[in-house]
Design a protein that fits this description.
The chain has about 120 residues and is mainly beta. Helix content is about 0%, strand content about 60%. Strand 9 and strand 10 form a beta hairpin. It starts with a strand and ends with a strand.
């Protein structure tokens, strides 16, 4: 499985961005995709994820502001980020969890920088 993330950039506080993560390869093995972020000096954290059944999870600080969704026809997962705050500044990564040979494996895309600043 290969993941290609895009959509980061510089935005003012209160603005919006949409990140995209396109999957290719053995996409039928993917059971869940998610977005993680790493801010300077901090540990990487889960932002949001969506499972094959459509269930979602969000980190508390982004609830009500971020929405994770997917387009199965395009094998793409999106992260719509609204009401962005400076503390959302981080490198965002997408991850796919893949089931294969009775095990679960993680695949990561390259990071995309999101900077929220006036």
């Amino acid at each position: 499985v290969q993941l290609q993330a895009s959509g980061g950039g510089l935005v003012q506080p209160g603005g919006s961005l949409r990140l995209s993560c396109a999957a290719s390869g053995s996409v039928f093995e993917i059971i869940r995709m998610g977005w993680y972020r790493r801010a300077p000096g901090k540990e990487r954290e889960l932002v949001a994820r969506i499972a094959r059944d459509g269930s979602t999870n969000y980190e508390d600080s982004v609830k009500g502001r971020f929405t994770v969704s997917r387009d199965d026809a395009r094998n793409t997962v999106y992260l719509q980020m609204n009401s962005l705050k400076p503390e959302d500044t981080a490198v965002y990564y997408c991850k796919a969890d893949v089931v294969r040979d009775l095990g679960v494996y993680e695949y990561w895309g390259q990071g995309t920088q999101v900077t929220v600043s006036s």
